[in-house]
Amino acid sequence: MVAQGPHGLGIRGATIDWPGMPTSLAIIGGGPAGNAAATFAARLGAEVTMIERDVVGGAAHLWDCIPSKAMIATGGAMSFLARSAGMGLGEVKPLVDLDNLRHRLATIEARLQTNQTELLESQGVRMLEGTGRIAGLHQVIADTAEGEIEIEADYIMLSTGSRPRIPDWAAIDGDRILTTRDAYPPNEMPEHLVVIGSGVTGVEFVHMFKSFGSEVTLIVSRQQVLPNKDPEVAAALEENFLARGVHLYKGARATAIEREGDLVHVRCTDGRIATGSHALLAIGSVPNSESLGLDNIDIETEHGYVNIDHHCRSSIPHIYAAGDLSGKLPLSSVATMQGRKIAEHVMGMHDLPHRHLDYDKAASAIFTEPEIADVGLAEADAFAEGRKIRVTKVPFSVSAKALINDDPRGFVKLISDPATGVILGGSVVGRHAAELIAVVALAVTARLTVGHIVDSLFIHPTLSEVIVESAE
Ligand SMILES: Cc1cc2nc3c(=O)[nH]c(=O)nc-3n(C[C@H](O)[C@H](O)[C@H](O)COP(=O)(O)OP(=O)(O)OC[C@H]3O[C@@H](n4cnc5c(N)ncnc54)[C@H](O)[C@@H]3O)c2cc1C
């Protein structure tokens, strides 16, 4: 069944009587999850109040996705210019300008915040600047500069995100001992940065500061950088790090950071000490849930994360949680999709399994050099499950466009069902991987086959032709 919503949204499986129902939704936290839910629910006719204590757009805009990728893009421009000879140019030696970089980050953030605020306003979302907490099953309090405001709502959504995890052995000073939030950019470019943590965030900061010319040491607690990734993909990154002179301390866990004048010493469990001018901690995050008033209601949590079902409902069905607070995949794209699903669910737009969010089909990227992106079934997981798969891999070195770009590094790997040809997953390693994976992500979600890809007329010369070749 297809129900046509009031704003022309054709949403399958809807069971709603249009026009709109008198539904109210109170949202605490205006990051990607809160914003998406607010926008869509208001568009579908709900009365929405959103409480945000910091900036609309959330940590994603202020601290995480946006400033990190903007800094990486600046570093990428520097590396590209430094390789100018390969493009037939004379020698270029770019230097980072910290003031200009700060201005660039502030301009991007301000523009995104304006866009987001205008969008919410245009949908009639009531926005409150303050700190929100739950006071009862249908009551939320916003502590604002003008005093407490109480909001009664049919539904409540919690989307307060997370913040960097800081263990008690790390005395963050924001000067030389940093979390990711102190690095946009730091007061001075680190001469030698010791990065603790080799997950996605850690390796992105290694790449970022290496591009700016810092010496970098990476503390890797296991034997593989990116321990949760396909070993072949992780190896490609490790090779690049080693070629660029990154020092890898493998099998080492940091246990203390000491400051001695302008030096920092990171002590590791195996006795090694990594000394640098700065240390940066990237060892995960903790949920922003401790002052949310969760004790006022009997809601299920685990280590501070709110447990949710496939509709993002908590153990109290009219209270939803999304984004990092839900303890699912900590990605902005996932938070946005959860917010959107919550808006639909609150408005009674769907209750059918085909509308469930499938976290296994979320594409993710690592903005390093080479860039890494993947989606769906990983080769190693298929082998572990004893599942029959067809794996095809084509290097970018066969691509005319890669040669034009003077960057033939990396490959496309596709995983498909040998019986049906249905694409189950894939990885792209190389320039523009995060853009290219979109085709594979669409194929995985829509259950397209390798035949569909082969029959598509892609543009020549482009890197996307390598996806076609790997489907052949
Ligand atoms: C360094 C780094 C880089 C990242 N890069 C990417 C990336 O490139 N792509 C990607 O998809 N993901 C990335 N992520 C992950 C992504 O940032 C998060 O998954 C995403 O921000 C989660 O969105 P959210 O809506 O849950 O919360 P957030 O973006 O954390 O927003 C939560 C909001 O709630 C507000 N808040 C908290 N408590 C209260 C309260 N009591 N009252 C009112 N407001 C409150 C906060 O001020 C904040 O604005 C990155 C993470 C890090 C750490």
Write the layout of secondary structure elements.
Elements: E1 2-4, E2 10-12, E3 24-28, H1 32-43, E4 47-52, H2 58-62, H3 65-82, H4 98-122, E5 126-136, E6 139-144, E7 147-152, E8 155-158, E9 162-164, E10 177-179, E11 192-196, H5 200-211, E12 215-220, H6 231-243, E13 247-250, E14 254-260, E15 263-268, E16 273-276, E17 278-281, E18 285-287, E19 301-302, E20 305-306, E21 319-321, H7 332-346, E22 364-366, E23 372-376, H8 379-384, E24 390-395, H9 400-404, E25 411-416, E26 423-429, H10 433-446, H11 450-454, H12 465-471
| Average of per-residue pLDDT values | 92
Say how many strands there are: 26
Total number of helices: 12
CATH topology of the largest domain: FAD/NAD(P)-binding domain
Instruction: Report the portion of residues in β strands.
Output: 25-35%
Give the N-to-C terminal Cα separation: 37 Å
Form type: globular
Give the proportion of residues in helices. 25-40%
What do we call the CATH homologous superfamily of the largest domain? FAD/NAD(P)-binding domain
Which strand order do you get reading across the main beta sheet?
Answer: 7-6-5-4-3-8-21
Task: Specify the oligomeric state.
Answer: single chain
How many domain regions?
Answer: 3
Structural write-up:
Strand 25 and strand 26 form a beta hairpin. 29% of the residues lie in helices and 26% in strands. The chain is globular, with a radius of gyration of 24 Å. It is built from twelve helices and 26 strands. The strands form seven sheets. A seven-stranded mixed sheet has the order 7-6-5-4-3-8-21. Helix 1 runs parallel beside helix 7 and helix 3 crosses helix 5. It is α/β, with parallel strands linked by helices and 472 residues long. The protein has three domains: 188 residues, FAD/NAD(P)-binding domain (3-Layer(bba) Sandwich); 107 residues, 3-Layer(bba) Sandwich (FAD/NAD(P)-binding domain), CATH 3.50.50.60; 102 residues, Enolase-like, domain 1 (2-Layer Sandwich). The structure holds flavin-adenine dinucleotide. The site of flavin-adenine dinucleotide has 36 residues, from helix 1, strand 4, helix 2, helix 3 and strand 5.
